[in-house]
DNA sequence: CATGAATGAGACTTCATTCAT
DNA sequence: TATGAATGAAGTCTCATTCAT
């Protein structure tokens, strides 16, 4: 039986509240009661919809990461140059941050960068993103568009690392934020990774 | 005040044990007693040398990060091309990981990537590294060796992000490890960031 | 007030399910939702028919115990020797177990042997059984069929204790079960208590 | 290393307090804080000495039950008639109750009669007592002192059931208590089980 | 310096009960 | 009658920190 509409709403309410609370206080530092309070629901209702505090974070991560993986897959099916593929991926991640910075903060800080806890749990999912990015690089190398002295795996890590670090810069207020900066970032990440920082003499 | 020799030893014993425990279990998941057990010292002795569990991690981070900052400063004083400076910095970080992967794992996972807790506490120190790297880029741009359409701050983040992500790859076993790989990584990071992934037509 | 037929059915359904759940998991360890699930009724319906979880057990006990008390009363009105009266009572209890071991398990484990909770609540009912058994012994002593150096109260406890312990043996799989064993048990209990374990010379 | 004296004292303090609390409120109904309060120690100290609330009860039971098993073994080694052996065993249990009625109440109510929880856990230990009693009966039958139409297992259950039910009678105030009653009980139990309730015609 | 027993606040989780539909 | 979402009190257990020796 499909969940009733009302039920879905409360469940969503709790998930959305959890994003705000996790972003503000961190997963380990917040209490389940903080989430309940933020969602304005009774304490016990959180446990009606989720087996544990962990499951809330798992749900948030998997929901969002699945969308990312689909987006990367979608990008790779297009017939566009590899640089544009990477631009589209970076763009998707940047836009995700622009659209919901708290959610992206939670996913990065509490999952993808948390090597000991959730990061390890969701490693297969996370790795899948790297694999798909590496596949794009691999094809670009076969087509002799990308140089082949950098292994695809390695290139994928560098690319993804640069993207995540830029988001981290925004999260930590180490880089200026704003619509202009978000658009620029997409270009700059790709310019840096694909074109390189060094001037090419004409 | 000079500490006695024996005292220094026990203190060091605890710090080294903490590295192993934090690396294995994570800061939040381990107990102070785990550290004491690992160090084979009495529980209470941990509190003789450190005010709190937090202070242990703070100490580990600050010790090591200070060395990194000094290394970057040292690199920047040399009269070598910017690419070589970045190579030296990447090399220093990679060698740090090779020399003590557990310590580097702790610093990355528990501090530099932990936006909500220690990451925020030590933000000034962390930022300092970015600033120094950005300064290198800035000078390279003024000397017209690096292109100037990528802001130095941004370039610094991309570079540091790539390095840290490679270490993360090793930590998570997403990238192969070994002496050869460590050496290659230094070159590949710099090739990617400075030279770019795209082939340059001759 | 006459309950509608459907209503009675659901109520019975819940009681029967509760027997199985209590027998399997124990009263304290099971949840009301376990009972509802076992009965295949909605959670809330349990509270439509019963004020509380306690009331379900109370109902089960009182229903069954009342039948036992009536049976003992009925036995005592017959004009048969005391040994046959005790045989009839032991037989009734053994047959109750044979007919519905789960219900008897619940009554013994959760009520008659639970000194702190339900046992205390239903003490008057439980005591009534002892009183009626003691009365049988008392009459037998007056008729000089039973020896009178064992007080009737005491004899009643010994008799009932032996019966309950045999049931406990079956519940715990400490004694073999089966139709033959059930029949034998009736005789053996009475032989032991009335005849004694010692051989009588002569 | 042996526990220090102070440590043993606090541990004992907690165990003794637990007996009083379990006897008064029942295992399921009491809180760990009740035990700590009763022992006048800090809440956490309970968990310093015991892994869980369960472990406290386990400890109490195993300590005492071991003593009972040893006593039965000891009795069986003596060269005395079986009736005297059973008298000694009943006497040991009755004296245990006289000496520490709260502890015996806890053991009977919360363990030996709790089929679903601790009773099941400690079944092997409990069964051991029945086995040893049955062995005494078995030998008495071989020596043609006891009749052999009642199986030893069965006789053991009847005997132990009678003893436990008498204790239950005291616990529930269904039987009068007092030094006289305790002494009488020993004799009456054995008279009932060995001699039988029926008068033997001379 | 060294020990580890002692403290107690605080977290997660459970679940009986209520209630709106 | 029937449903199951919603409530929140209460309990177990953890563990950082303190302290007496």
UniProtKB/TrEMBL annotation, chains A, B, C, D:
<dbReference type="InterPro" id="IPR009057">
    <property type="entry name" value="Homeodomain-like_sf"/>
</dbReference>
<dbReference type="Pfam" id="PF00440">
    <property type="entry name" value="TetR_N"/>
</dbReference>
<keyword id="KW-0238">DNA-binding</keyword>
<protein>
    <submittedName>
        <fullName>TetR/AcrR family transcriptional regulator</fullName>
    </submittedName>
</protein>
<feature type="DNA-binding region" description="H-T-H motif">
    <location>
        <begin position="31"/>
        <end position="50"/>
    </location>
</feature>
<dbReference type="Pfam" id="PF17938">
    <property type="entry name" value="TetR_C_29"/>
</dbReference>
<dbReference type="InterPro" id="IPR041474">
    <property type="entry name" value="NicS_C"/>
</dbReference>
<feature type="domain" description="HTH tetR-type">
    <location>
        <begin position="8"/>
        <end position="68"/>
    </location>
</feature>
<dbReference type="InterPro" id="IPR036271">
    <property type="entry name" value="Tet_transcr_reg_TetR-rel_C_sf"/>
</dbReference>
<dbReference type="InterPro" id="IPR001647">
    <property type="entry name" value="HTH_TetR"/>
</dbReference>
<dbReference type="InterPro" id="IPR050109">
    <property type="entry name" value="HTH-type_TetR-like_transc_reg"/>
</dbReference>
<keyword id="KW-0804">Transcription</keyword>
<keyword id="KW-0805">Transcription regulation</keyword>
């Amino acid at each position: 039986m499909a969940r009733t509409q009302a039920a879905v709403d409360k469940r969503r309410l709790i998930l959305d509240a959890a994003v705000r609370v996790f972003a503000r206080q961190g997963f380990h530092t917040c209490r389940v009661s903080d989430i309940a309070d933020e969602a304005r629901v009774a304490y016990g209702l959180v446990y009606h919809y989720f087996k544990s505090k962990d499951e809330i974070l798992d749900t948030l991560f998997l929901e969002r990461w699945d969308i990312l993986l689909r987006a990367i897959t979608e990008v790779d099916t297009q017939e566009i140059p590899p640089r544009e593929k990477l631009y589209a991926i970076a763009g998707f991640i940047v836009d995700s941050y622009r659209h919901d910075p708290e959610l992206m903060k939670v996913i990065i800080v509490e999952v993808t960068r948390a090597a000991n806890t959730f990061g390890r749990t969701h490693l297969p999912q996370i790795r899948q993103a790297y694999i798909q990015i590496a596949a794009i690089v691999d094809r670009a190398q076969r087509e002799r568009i990308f140089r082949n002295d950098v292994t695809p795996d390695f290139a994928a890590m560098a690319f993804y690392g640069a993207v995540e670090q830029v988001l981290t810069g925004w999260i930590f207020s180490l880089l200026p934020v704003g619509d202009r900066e978000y658009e620029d970032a997409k270009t700059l990440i790709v310019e840096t990774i694909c074109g390189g920082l060094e001037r090419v003499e004409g």
